[in-house]
Amino acid sequence: MLLRKTFTFDAAHNLTSYHGACEKLHGHTYKMTVTIEGTPGDEGMIVDFADVKEIVRDAIISKFDHSYLNDTFAQPSAENIARFAFNTLSPLLRGLNYELRDVELFETQSSSVVFSREDLLVPDVNQRVDAVMFDFDMTLADSGHAVTECMNIFAEAKGLPKVTQEVMLNLLGRTVEEEWMILYGRFEPDWIDFYRQNISETEFSLIRLFDGASETLSLLREMGLITGIISNRGRLPLVLERVGLLGKADVVVGINEVKNPKPAPDALLLALERVGVSPENALYVGDTDIDIKAAIAAGMRCIGMTTGNFDEPSLYKAGAWRVCADVREIPLMIGGKA
Length: 338
Fold this sequence. Notes:
Layout: E1 2-13, E2 26-38, H1 49-64, E3 67-68, H2 78-89, E4 94-95, E5 98-108, E6 111-116, E7 131-134, E8 141-142, H3 144-158, H4 165-171, H5 176-184, H6 190-198, H7 200-206, E9 208-209, H8 213-222, E10 226-230, H9 236-243, E11 251-253, H10 266-275, E12 282-286, H11 289-298, E13 301-305, H12 312-318, E14 322-324, H13 330-333
Parallel strand pairs: 1-3, 7-10, 7-12, 10-11, 12-13, 13-14
Antiparallel strand pairs: 1-2, 2-5, 4-5, 5-6, 8-9
């Protein structure tokens, strides 16, 4: 069964590298229809229209309405806008009984483009890969023990309850502020300075790279591929220096460089922009559903790693393109040699 909801927004743009009327500044009243495919649940609905309205409004309409689209897109064509909308909404409009099927964008009453799930399907071996980007925690490095040990040092100093490693592994991938809010129900700004001044170096000293992590980055570069490390960590270059990975990647983007952390695509898109690679020609490697959602929103394929707290079925369910248990398998997936 299909569920559809239509939205409108007004925006201005001009097409670049294009000769014609649309190269001049002009505007449109865009109409955008999202189509969700699913089966009715216990309440007799696929998904509440009110929930769809709120998600699309917050993720797309509020961003584009009365905006200059060239501020967001290098080429603000209807095709690129529809693709961006689908990639952004796909992880948000997904439940046990439904998922986003397509986004149709009308530039005029008689002219529209449709971006659908089928447009995300790419050949396994024929799609060119120019870059491979990695998450850090539990993807390149085993940091579970380190963050648990140091979170408990912090908790003892602040009179807060201690946590188990299982709990911390469930939280990895989020920002430290989000972790504290989930663990303790509050976050105080001075906590970050306290942690950095008194605990960070202990955490860095306890982190261990997974076997083959450094060698995999080197091999990918030898294969002519661009590499990157993208994380929701602050001070990412510092921790990479401590574990010996600084300089092993062509681009590094931490949370302090973007407005929105993963699962928003901001950090991934910034990394791709810096190295001049299109999303469809890049892979992102991560161990959580947060990583997969960020990759999908950026228009990238994601390789899920079972080195964290997600097993293979969970990673595929979240939308992973491929799943592996050892970072050394990744060059083999894209034509390298062991």
